[in-house]
Amino acid sequence: MRGGKILVAGATGRVGGSAARHLLEAGFEVRALVRNADRGESLRSLGAEVALGDVTRPQTLAPPLEGCAGVFSALSSTTDRQAREVEYGGNVSLLSAAREAGARRFVYSSALHADHPMARKVGTFREKARFEEVLFGTGDVSTTVLRPAMFMETLLMALKGPVAFVMAGSDVWCAGSPQTTRPEPQSGP
Ligand SMILES: NC(=O)c1ccc[n+]([C@@H]2O[C@H](COP(=O)([O-])OP(=O)(O)OC[C@H]3O[C@@H](n4cnc5c(N)ncnc54)[C@H](OP(=O)(O)O)[C@@H]3O)[C@@H](O)[C@H]2O)c1
Fold it and tell me: Where along the chain do its domains lie?
């Protein structure tokens, strides 16, 4: 095993699940933070440890972080309230618990243009940017912020329900929003 044990938060999701699998393949010990033990079974079968915890309940985070050298955080939320509680508050609690446990690396999966002025209008992006600021201000932990663009899987959301697409320069990114009305298809030029 190399590099020490890594706690993956959001390990039952798209990004976190993929990160957990790649870390295991690369020879790291992985502990997956899950809210529901059943959802962690596939990760356990790949060789990850599974620990129960909820980032909105900070008191649940100390045991999962015990003995971890680093954290990979890929939490997600949908509503503005969840964004505040999970993407900002949850990640702050996770970072705090990681520092208390002696973890010295924190890798955070944010999103492209999280700090763009337009993104401030969308809770999930706004709260990501707020957490990035906290993370960059942390002196005793080595931090990495990843800002991926939209994944192809997310395009499927456009077929299943309302999705807001925001153009920024030559990049395109999107934010799912249950409040957004799906526009009528427009005929192109
Ligand atoms: N998908 C994209 O196109 C895309 C593009 C760029 C950036 N990103 C960003 O990358 C990050 C991960 O995205 P994703 O698509 O992988 O999300 P996802 O598939 O929806 O997974 C979200 C994960 O967060 C966990 N979670 C939510 N609330 C939690 C809580 N209170 N305590 C512990 N775990 C909690 C979920 O656990 P449960 O299984 O228990 O619900 C799940 O494992 C997000 O910040 C997203 O904005 C995504």
Answer: 5-149
90 lines ligand 1 (CB under 6 A): yes
Q: Which helix (H) or strand (E) holds 17?
A: helix 14-25
Mean pLDDT of 15-32: 97
* Ligand 1 pocket test, candidate residues 7, 15, 88, 131, most atoms within 8 A of CB: 15
129 lines ligand 1 (CB under 6 A): no
Cα 66 from chain centre: 20
Q: What is the pLDDT of residues 56-71, one digit of tens each?
A: 999 999 999 999 999 9
CB atoms within 10 A of CB 28: 20
What pairs with residue 175 in β-bridges?
164
- Contact in structure between 145 and 91 (CB atoms under 8 Å): no
- pTM of structure: 0.87
Tell me: the pLDDT tens digits for 118-141? 888 888 999 999 999 999 999 899
Distances (CA, A) of 16 to 40, 75, 136: 12, 8, 21
What are the φ/ψ torsions at residue 117 (nearest 5 degrees)?
A: -55, -40
The CATH fold of domain 5-149: Rossmann fold (3.40.50)
pLDDT at 1 over 70: no
